[in-house]
Write a structure and sequence with these properties.
By secondary structure, the chain is of the alpha+beta class. The chain contains 29 helices and 18 strands. Helix 4 (66-90) runs antiparallel to helix 12, helix 19 crosses helix 21 (534-549) and helix 21 packs across helix 24. The strands form six sheets. A six-stranded mixed β-sheet has the order 1-10-11-9-8-7. The radius of gyration is 25 Å and the shape is globular. It catalyses: Release of an N-terminal dipeptide from a peptide comprising four or more residues, with broad specificity. Also acts on dipeptidyl 2-naphthylamides.
């Protein structure tokens, strides 16, 4: 998988949610309906102390040549046009919410809108601030569900007050019919927190745009089997189910500018296992067309032929809906080593598809930090001969040749997706990775924003002091090992396109059973076999690789860790992982019994493995906080991580990799789901503690990103000083009034026709 995400949080928020773990709740006393409703609402609101920060890239941008700045400008514009695809991929109401509040904010200065809110709509200062924070959350997550956790968030201000403000606004004065239409489409769903609207997921238990609402798991399985049989990959598609001439049609809809039939890509109607299946195209056509216009302009400012070929293939892919063209573009991208301006765009990450096959659109533009990048060169150079052989599964389950990745440390200029990771390993196409290699990128300015936030619950003061001292370097090492070696290691046993196997079937045995190994047949891949578990399983494997190799002093030498600091740094890396596992419990959804975030589930699983190892390696103790409410204390025994910890993680990692290599989803799922359980009793009653973790959660930061604008023959970077409205202002400035009108029209058209 592609992105390394951390739980980037800010200051502690205290509110009605603090009632969640009262002694009454702990004793199992039922909550009154009105109080439970308030508690649920608080979990689905963005707190007033949400950190709204500006992602700095001025120094990196200033170091570019004029040609490079023009290249970056057009790529950024393409990315922002593509961001509306994510809005359409998030929820049915996200496009209408964007249209409604963006028009409200762009029709008059925010300060004058605030005056209207206070004087004519009965808003308090905090309520208007909460509305700006809500909108900032919508445009940062590109929808009204959190990119990290898939939880719906709603405005803190009442619907009645918001509606009053809208009717008193300049936007309503200028276009009352338009605003009324947007209110009709957005306001009801915007505030709706019924059970099956609270989280993303497959109907009827959640919301997804990758399937129409009438689709079930059985329908998803039919589509998966058909696509495997026809060797179609699902990255840029969604599944529609509808009636036509009295028959049920499964329509696999590809994202593309072109809408007409195309041999080799579309299928009018196909019979499969008694079902009628169609492959059509034309999804997100308008936004892909606008992207292509900018990519064609960027093409005039490329640095080399590889960038030209890359953009040409992106254009072909987005025009036709061809995954193969995007793979070809990815190949040129991988070959383009350490460019001054780095970019990657397309349908990349499958985290949000309930069955982990269809990908969310993503596009980033960044400037390479060459000095920071050089320190990883040695790690890559020594990986194949020195570090990968240390992993606990042996050469039979390791790649025959390690495809040395290109590692770059980047300062992000533009990131259009549902959230910003701090590290990325891409492309996600396994065949491209095996044959051409891959790239790892560390997002330096995002990491800097994250490490500037201190403190947190559940740890002792001494542990907080160690994290503050070593946390930044520990995170840098963890991300490097996770992305460079974690995602880059391990073999898939598979049948190649020519029918041969990429391993010796007569020789290789399953080390756990002694029988012949299983493998991936043509048309199968990791995501199609491990389905909804694929993302969390792979992130867990990469995290465990990083934790396991973090013991190696030769690796710490690469990062210039002083000998006197090594044991403390190793301890902090383990502490951080266990801490992330505990705090990640927030992302568990008790009502549905499932996890809402792959990275959080992965870290929780690692915590459970460490607790199972016993011998005092990791301990979680229930305590009472200064507010007299239940609290938790997490401790890690520094003396046990080299022995008990390393042995436990080594055996767990061996199973993770070998099940993955063989495509043994049954064994892998059985193991992984056992550790993913959230027990209600025993020494570690995480189900009970879930309430404590939710109550003590802290808001995630929201980042404003700069805009670029042409000025004469050059490009200027438009910055936004950190303030409550910095994110909102950056978005209001992002497009011209005429462009916003066209955006609204395209989003409204999608809302009207997304199930057809």
């Amino acid at each position: 998988m592609g992105g390394y995400c951390v739980d980037v949080v800010g200051t502690l928020t205290v509110g009605v949610g603090d009632c969640l773990s009262s002694p009454a709740a702990a004793a199992g006393v039922p909550w009154p309906d009105h109080l439970r409703s308030s508690i649920m609402g608080s979990q689905h609101e963005l707190p007033l102390d949400t950190p709204l920060l500006y992602l700095k890239s001025e120094e990196a941008f200033a170091g570019l040549s004029s040609r490079e700045r023009r290249y970056a400008h057009h790529l950024s514009r393409a990315s922002w046009w593509g961001s509306f695809i994510v809005v359409c991929q998030t929820s049915p109401e996200s496009p209408s919410i964007f249209n409604l509040i963006t028009r409200l904010l762009r029709s008059q200065p925010i300060d004058t809108l605030k005056e209207v809110a206070l004087t004519k709509a009965g808003f308090t200062e905090d309520e208007f601030k909460s509305l700006i924070i809500y909108y900032s959350g919508v445009v940062y997550n590109l929808g009204n569900y959190l990119g990290f956790g898939d939880r719906k968030f709603v405005p803190s201000v009442s619907r009645e007050k918001l509606e009053t403000l809208i009717r008193a606004s300049k936007a309503n004065l200028e276009a009352p019919d338009v605003m009324q239409e947007y209110m009709n489409q957005a306001l009801g769903p915007m505030y709706n927190l019924v059970e099956n609207k609270r989280f993303l997921g497959l109907p009827p238990n959640g919301i997804t745009m990758y399937f129409t609402p009438n689709c079930t798991q059985e329908d998803a399985d039919i589509a998966k089997e058909y696509m495997a049989a026809k060797n179609i990959e699902a990255w840029n598609s969604r599944l529609l189910k509808y009636e036509e001439n009295g028959q049920t049609i499964y329509d696999i809809r590809l994202a593309s500018v072109e809408k007409e039939s195309c041999e080799g890509l579309t299928v009018d109607v196909d019979e499969f296992q008694g079902h009628k299946i169609r492959v059509s195209r034309g999804d997100h056509s308008y936004f892909l067309k606008k992207m292509i216009e900018e990519l064609q302009l960027a093409r005039e400012h490329t640095a080399n032929d590889l960038e030209v070929q890359m953009l040409d293939k992106y254009i072909e892919s987005f025009s036709k809906g061809s995954v193969q063209a995007h793979k070809d573009g990815s190949t040129f991208w991988v070959k383009n080593k350490s460019p001054a301006v780095e970019t990657y765009m397309g349908f990349i990450e499958v985290y949000r598809d309930p069955v982990n096959q269809r990908a969310e659109f993503e596009s980033f533009v960044a400037v390479v930090n060459r000095e920071q990048s050089r320190k990883f060169d040695t790690l890559v150079e020594r990986a194949e001969k020195e570090f990968l052989p240390l992993l606990p599964w042996g050469s039979d389950f390791e790649e025959d040749v390690f495809m040395r990745p290109d590692f770059s440390s980047l300062d992000i200029l533009t990131f259009a997706s549902s959230g910003l990771p701090i590290g990325i390993n891409i492309p996600n196409y396994k065949d491209v990775k095996e044959e051409q290699g891959f790239k790892n990128v560390s997002l330096t300015n995002v990491m800097a924003a994250r490490t500037g936030i201190k403190g947190g619950p559940f740890l002792s003061e001494s542990d907080h002091a160690l994290r503050e001292k070593h946390g930044a370097l520990g995170l840098e090492i963890q991300v490097g090992l996770h992305e460079l070696l974690g995602h880059g290691c391990g073999k898939f046993l598979r049948r190649k396109d020519d029918g041969s196997l990429n391993f010796d079937y007569k020789k290789l045995k399953n080390p756990f059973t002694g029988e012949k190994v299983t493998f991936y047949e043509k048309g199968e891949n990791y995501n199609s076999c491990f389905t909804n578990l694929a993302s969390a399983y792979e992130e867990c494997r990469a995290e465990t690789v990083a934790l396991y190799l973090g013991f190696v002093d030769d690796i710490l030498d690469v990062f210039s860790v002083a000998p006197d600091d090594r044991e403390d740094l190793k301890y902090v890396c383990w502490l951080d992982m266990m801490y992330a596992g505990l705090r990640g419990l927030e992302m568990y959804q008790p009502s549905q019994g499932k996890w809402g975030q792959a990275h959080s589930q992965a870290r929780y699983v690692i915590l459970r493995v460490a607790l199972e190892a016993g011998q005092g390696l990791v301990t979680i103790t229930e305590t009472t906080g200064p507010d007299s409410l239940p609290d938790l204390l997490l401790t890690v025994d520094k003396t046990k991580i080299h022995s008990v910890g390393r042995e436990a993680m080594g055996e767990f990692l061996r199973k993770l990799q070998i099940y993955r290599s063989m495509g043994d989803a049954e064994a892998g799922r059985s193991m992984f789901e056992k550790y993913s359980e959230v027990p209600s009793d025993g020494p570690y009653p995480f189900s009970k503690w879930h309430e404590i973790v939710v109550r003590k959660r802290r808001p995630r930061m929201i980042l404003a990103m700069p805009n670029t604008q042409l000025s004469g023959g050059d490009v200027e970077l438009v910055s936004y000083p950190e303030a409550v409205d910095c994110v909102a202002k950056s978005w209001v400035d992002r497009f011209s009034p005429e462009e916003f009108e066209a955006i609204e029209t395209a989003l409204s058209a999608f809302v009207q026709g997304w199930t057809k």
